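Annex B.
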Amino acid sequence: MPRFDNQTVLVTGGTGGQGSNHVRAFHVEGANVVIGDIDTERGAALADELGTRAHFTRLDVTDESSWSAAVLAAESAFGALNVLVNNAGVQNPPATIDNTERATWSRILDINLTGTFLGIKVAAPALRRAAGGVIVNIASTMGLGGTANYAPYVASKWAVRGLTRTAALELGRDHIRVNTIHPGVISTPFIHEPAAGATAAIADFYSPEPFAIPRLGEPADVSRLLLFLTSSDASFITGSEYVIDGGLLLGPALQTETA
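3-alpha-hydroxysteroid dehydrogenase: predicted structure tokens.
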């Protein structure tokens, strides 16, 4: 029996490199999937591709009324909302703090942090109506350290950690679990294409060669962890952080000596 039969999952940023993989993974496991994204064309195409048990709703994560409409759409289409995956996020073009525009700072935090806050705020009552559920916030290994030239993104992901723990404390007695996943460098357009306003992609200056698992992560790696955390197998886990980075945060691995 698929793990998510009769459950409804809303994934934000659901047309992106990681988001679309998460949507497909939940769908394979029997879930009703609600694809939330601002890209109407790609969102509708993905819902059409999946067919039954898939619904697209246009969702601007910075807009509380858009969130309310998305949650209503999930409940109207499938009867309840059981899982929220706060996956939507954007990267800033690299710049030192003193060269970062205030508008860039505000935009990154508005999407990555305020968008996650609004998702929790609006989805929590729906999860209560469903007698409980799960929220997973997709953060980043950049939320566990400092990274030069990426202050807005780093700050947003650090803040998501505190937001997650607070939500876990507030919602636990409502049978709602809240956890965070911190992906490292995952092979998606997010990594291979320059951020808006940037001239180079992260992949242009990052190599996994020194690390314990010397490859880029794949979206499927993150999806497998996400499926575990949102399943009943993780029923005793809340307020926790899961790093999936191939050893990036550990630092360079001991290299095998060759003759």
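The beta strands are 8-12, 32-37, 54-58, 83-86, 133-138, 176-183, 241-244. The chain has one domain: 8-244. Further annotation is deferred to the next reporting cycle.
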